[in-house]
Amino acid sequence: MIPTEKVYSDDDRSYNQKTVSQRIEALFLNNIGKVVTREQIIRAATDPTTGKEPENWHQRLSELRTDKGYTILSWRDWKALAPQEYILPHSERRATAAKRVLPTPACWAKVLTRAGNQCEWTEDGQRCGLASGEIDPIGGGTVKLTPDHMVPHSIDPAADPGDPSRWQALCGRHQVMKKNYWDSSSGKINVLGILQAVNETQKREALAFLLRYYGYEIK
Ligand SMILES: [Zn+2]
Questions:
Q1: Distance 131 CA to ligand 1 centre (A)
Q2: 67 near 178, Cβ under 8 Å?
Q3: How many domains, the chain?
Q4: Residue 219 Cα, ligand 1 centroid: separation in angstroms?
Q5: Ligand 1 center to residue 91 CA distance, Å?
Q6: φ, ψ for residue 168, nearest 5 deg
Q7: What does the pLDDT look like over 2-18, one tens digit per residue?
Q8: How many Å apart are CA 111 and CA 105, to the nearest integer?
Q9: Same structural domain for residues 73 and 113?
Q10: Any domain includes 92
Q11: What are phi and psi of 161, to 5 degrees?
Q12: Claim to verify: residue 139 and residue 71 sit in the same structural domain
């Protein structure tokens, strides 16, 4: 799964595909097995007619993983990579990348009203609360709220497109967080995904916990 050597792409092209996501996808597919950098991604993702740099390229990159099922490695997955370096080791896509079911427009309007047009992600009793159109102070970019079905579709195939109680409004950052850390095929927390995403210190803490748990001495 992880390449044996680190080869940099020398791709300095701009790309003409219609959307930011398609341009980034084309860059990776043209450079399978090679390291592409943040600069190359931004160059490829830049709008070919307006020259406008995309502010949300990082989210589009995450969606290539979560929605389209590509394996795109970062420094979190492969130690040889530096931050802001990425690699698509092969073009196979996971079949689990499910197509999205959406709420009806009337249902989504009710969800947004309930949410007060703010992200409803709650962690440790604290609501995210970012409002549509605000700048996300952590992730950057303009907040756009999108619907999230609270129970994974594969577990609950009747997706309740008309029932507002089954949907929540999430900002882009929390959509990505939920998709990355929640395995919708099993309905379980994606522990390995979390371990891949956390920093070195947190990885060591997890390792120490497991060693203790299994009765090994730690020095
Ligand atoms: Zn949020």
A1: 9
A2: no
A3: 2
A4: 40
A5: 31
A6: -135, 155
A7: 788 899 999 998 899 99
A8: 10
A9: no
A10: no
A11: -65, -15
A12: no
* Rounded CA separation 55/69 (Å): 22
Taking 70 as the pLDDT cut, the residues of the chain under it are 1, 96-100, 152-159, 180, 182-189, 197-198, 218-219
Cα(149) to centroid(ligand 1), Å: 15
Range of the domain at 143: 105-186
Q: Tell whether 48 and 112 lie within a shared domain.
A: no
**Ligand 1 center–CA 37 separation, angstroms:** 27
Residue 196 CA, ligand 1 centroid: distance in Å: 21
3-state DSSP assignment of residue 147: strand
In a shared domain, residues 35 and 81:
yes
Classify residue 10: in a domain, yes or no.
no
- Cα(118) to ligand 1 centroid in Å equals 8
Q: Please give the distance, rounded to the nearest whole angstrom, from the Cα atom of residue 4 to the centre of ligand 1.
A: 37
Q: Ligand 1 center to residue 115 CA distance, Å?
A: 11
What is the reported pTM?
A: 0.50
Query: Which alpha helices (H) appear in 38-97, and where do they start and end?
Result: 38-45, 57-66
How far is ligand 1, taken at its centre, from the CA of residue 167, in Å?
14
- Predicted pLDDT of residue 69: 85
Ligand 1 centre distance from Cα of residue 60 (Å): 16
Length of the chain, in residues: 219
